[in-house]
Amino acid sequence: MFLMKKKKKTKKELEKILDFLIEIGKLKKIKRRGWVMRKVKNPESIADHTFRTAILAWILSSFKGLNTNKIVKMALVHDLCEVEAGDTTPYDPLLKKIKNQKDLEDLLKIWPKFSQKEKIKFAKEKFQKELKGLKKVLSFLPKHLQKEMINLWLEYERGITKEGRFLKQLDRIENLIQALEYLNEGNKFAVSPWWEQKEELIDDPLLLEFLFVLEKKFGKIFENYK
Amino acid sequence: MKNIVKFIQEIGELKGKARRGWVLHKFKNPETTAEHIFHLAFLAWIAGKFQNLNTEKLIKMALLHDICEVYAPDLTSYDAKGIEKKGKITIKDVFKIVPKKGRPQTWQRKKLDLIKRKLEEKGMKKILKNLPPQIKKEMELLWQEYREQITPEARLIKQCDKMINLFQGLEYWKKYGKIEKNLWIQRAKEVVDNPFLIKFLKYLEKKYK
After folding, report:
1. pTM, whole model, 2 decimals?
2. CA-to-CA distance for A20 and A18, rounded, in angstroms?
3. ipTM, interface predicted TM-score of the complex
């Protein structure tokens, strides 16, 4: 009797793990919205972005003496919520007003600016939506794994640890590198939003140095697409 | 710092590199190597947790396990099946192989593995070459551990790799057919001896009937 119960429990556990893998497997299919909006051909998926962010985080955090193990795990988890919550972009609150492709292109030339009040409101909404999404994705996993992953995400999202704050900036940098690579391949869109965003978000000295190297390497592109 | 930027751009190629096994099946928009690594890292994390292994090491090993493919070809067992003559083959010969469906014979598999290993070692050396010494050392050691299969973590990654690939194959099978499903399951059974993964495999077999 006891054995039967145990067997049933294992089966259920495996079933849930498989469901989890199917769920997160969707991130291999979901193209990042920022690129779709900019009409990039064959853009990367969320899983693609997560992979490179994890490696970037591993390397750069090692120079800072941060906990590389933690930050790598955090990087893997940082966009999981998007299976359920979708890929929110900073332009979303403004999309209602957009009527045609031309409007969208104009909008994407600048980094959206909001009042402090609006900012707090949008951030709160995004946080709630994503936390709910993350909890749903993780609901397939055993409790202790759920807890580990949610805590990592909260550290990242709230910026409560050094690793969390560092990853938040790295996430943007990975995105900038990808933007530069797409421009290099012949896609056309304005790069200035990333630059304005940088002013707002990136203050880590090591990352500022990293950006300096990027700017030098892709100098021509900056001139052409500012 | 310049070298790190270069490395990050190099591994970025894995985001656009479709896995060869699926390309050979002519699937539309197949997964990329980066996406495969992402999926594997999570399976390894979960399986490692269930068995009280070092999940941090597992995840890092998963992230590294295929980065040699920036420079090394992603050779599959279909390539092994395409090897025609016994005797030595050179690296040049590898690029002339015409892949075939079906199960390769042991000598074919061994032959491909030998050359594949060489190409992967070379690829890994090349990609890690210019990284700063400390991080390079860490990555080299993890990769060696994986290659030599000397620790429980290394063995688990290898088997998880097989398993996540089987899982993706079964998903494609459900969608497009085309995959020699039973052969794949059979092959996985021969490779997997981890108790957790054996159970998982049995479950997969039932689920994708």
Report:
1. 0.95
2. 5
3. 0.94
